[in-house]
Design goal:
Blueprint (H helix, E strand, L loop, with lengths): L1 H18 L10 E5 L4 H6 L1 H4 L3 E5 L4 E2 L8 E2 L4 E2 L9 E2 L4 E2 L8 E2 L4 E2 L9 E2 L4 E2 L9 E2 L4 E5 L21 E3 L3 E5 L5 H12 L5 E6 L11 H7 L6 E7 L18 E5 L4 H13 L10 H11 L5 E7 L17 E6 L9 H9 L3 E3 L4 E2 L10 E4 L2 E6 L2 E4 L2
Parallel strand pairs: 16-17, 16-19, 19-20, 20-21
Antiparallel strand pairs: 1-2, 3-4, 5-6, 7-8, 9-10, 11-12, 13-15, 14-15, 17-18, 21-22, 23-24, 24-25
Bound molecules: 2-acetamido-2-deoxy-beta-D-glucopyranose (NAG) (2 copies).
Length: about 400
């Protein structure tokens, strides 16, 4: 690249040497000045000396529209990252340009820029956060957390750092933001966040039972979104309510419905609206739900979802386990409404085992189910489970 610029420049200079150049002809991105020739040279080539120009490329951070004897420095908030610029470019939103001679920098974590042509990003206000780079705006702090910006950008004059005193239980730290939990979460609230924190799963499709008393299991949904530093953590949410209040007798296995899906990149608000719609359109009626139908829906409709997590109700058995054979990806079952030290619903072990997946609770990750053979037993919590030809049976 540099070579090409150099060669072009060389060719241009040679051309100018030969044909001479008037200032009006000075090309864009260059400056042209009368050559100061030595006295000796001047006497020899006095005739053409009048016309001869020194042509120089404009350095990065400066520009020339053409016909200029000087390059002009870029205005504040604009940039020209390469030499020879005919104009400077506006620094885009979500970026800052503290220097005019380099490419714009994405706003660091904890900062944003809602305007273009800025030399510096702004630090999020207290109670707001930006866990992604290049944000146009900050998001509201997730419920149950307190957010404060720790950023003090080198280019920032008016520091907006707040010094809120908090009773810190746990913190999620990024280079420039700090999110502090303010309330003690319940076990159910903690389970999914805990499991997500323990693993580096990306491109997740999350299948979530929203019936009955599952609310605590997804109460922290906005925080899962906030945890997704790369925006890749949960890509697709599927909420199911077992048939939108269809009478139990009319529910058909495999097409019960009441399944609502949303891509995370549609925004946190859309995710929460979809969740609320799913929740308010049906409560499940009887105990068993259409978990497997929702899992199949997720896999079919999100080809880029690498990791399928199933946030399951430990106190209800899916009605459609018969569909498990149609599940084509390993399912990571996260057991909600489970009290540590008590029993795990063996049907949830079946979902994990039969799909080649795993089972997770607040304090357990069981990832070796695949190595079990019929007749083997496994200890989960206080229970002992035997694997027979139909699936797991609790024996102790
Ligand atoms: C997750 O990633 C972090 C940082 O790359 C690494 O330190 C940690 O060991 C990983 N955890 C797992 C369970 O792979
Ligand atoms: C995929 O989503 C569409 C709605 O967008 C739905 O009608 C369809 O049943 C889903 N596919 C499966 C296999 O569930």
């Amino acid at each position: 690249m540099t070579k090409i610029v150099f060669l072009t420049l060389l060719a241009l200079c040679l051309a100018l040497e030969i044909f001479g150049l008037k200032l009006e002809q000075c090309p864009p991105g260059f400056r042209c000045r009368k050559r100061t020739t030595s006295l000796l040279m001047r006497s020899i080539i006095s005739k053409i000396e009048e016309e001869e120009m020194d042509v120089e490329i404009c350095e990065a951070g400066t520009y020339s529209p053409g016909g200029a004897d000087e390059c002009t420095p870029c205005e504040k908030g604009t940039y020209a990252a390469k030499p020879g610029a005919p104009a400077c470019y506006f620094c885009p939103k979500g970026h800052m340009c503290p220097r005019a001679d380099v490419v714009p920098e994405q706003c660091p974590l904890g900062t944003y820029n809602d305007l273009s042509r800025q030399t510096c990003c702004r630090v999020c206000q207290p109670g707001k956060f930006a866990l992604l780079k290049g944000m146009f705006q900050c998001d509201d702090c997730p419920s149950g957390y307190r957010c404060r910006a720790r950023a003090k950008l080198p280019c920032e004059d008016e520091a907006m750092e707040t010094t809120t005193t908090t009773t810190t239980t746990t913190t999620t730290r990024t280079s420039e933001s700090i999110i502090t939990r303010t309330t003690t979460p319940t076990i159910d609230e903690e389970t999914v966040t805990g499991v997500l924190n323990r693993h580096n799963w990306t491109d997740i499709g999350a299948v979530i039972d929203v019936t009955g008393s599952m609310a605590a299991c997804y109460a922290q949904i906005d925080q899962w979104l906030a945890l997704s530093h790369t925006n890749k953590l949960v890509q697709y949410f599927v909420f199911f309510n077992d048939g939108d209040n269809t009478p139990n007798k009319d529910k058909v296995i495999g097409s019960t419905g009441g399944i609502y899906a949303v891509h995370t990149n549609e925004g946190i608000d859309k995710v929460l609206t979809t969740l609320n719609t799913a929740k308010s359109n049906g409560g499940g009626g009887d105990g068993p739900e259409n978990d497997i139908e929702a899992i199949i829906y997720t896999i079919a409709n999100c080809s880029t979802c690498e990791n399928i997590i199933h946030i399951a109700d430990n106190q209800a058995t899916p009605r459609d386990l018969i569909l498990l054979g149609e599940v084509t990806k390993p399912i990571k079952v996260i057991v909600c409404k489970y009290i540590p030290g008590t029993l795990v619903n063996p049907k949830l072990l079946d979902i994990a085992y039969k799909t080649g997946g795993s089972l997770h609770t607040l304090d357990l990750d069981i990832e070796t189910l695949g190595s079990l053979k019929v007749g083997d037993t496994i200890q989960v919590g206080t229970g002992t489970y035997l694997l027979d030809v139909t699936g797991f049976i609790r024996i102790v």
